Here is the input.
Amino acid sequence: MKRYVIERDLPGVGGMSGEELCGASAKSNEALEQIPGVQWEHSYVAGDKTFCIYLAENEDAIQKHAELSGFPANVITEVTTIIDPTTAG
Here is the structure.
């Protein structure tokens, strides 16, 4: 599977309560149950956006999740390489 970063414009998401974020996660999980071959790793919440890390066969699967969940996939970017501090040697 390929790894993707999905940028979602969600006004107000940074101010959501834990309970509201729990509900959003549950809604996303319900959509994922309907799409084979897609896995949500985690998301970063920053201001009015989320940056979600997903594993999927292709972008179409990501778009299908966006349709079913109601959460937009404004920008979908395939991750081609991962680096971290240990990459320096």
User: Anything to note?
Assistant: The beta strands are 2-9, 38-46, 49-56, 75-79. The first strand starts at residue 2 and ends at 9. Residues 2-88 form a domain with the Alpha-Beta Plaits fold (CATH 3.30.70.3090).
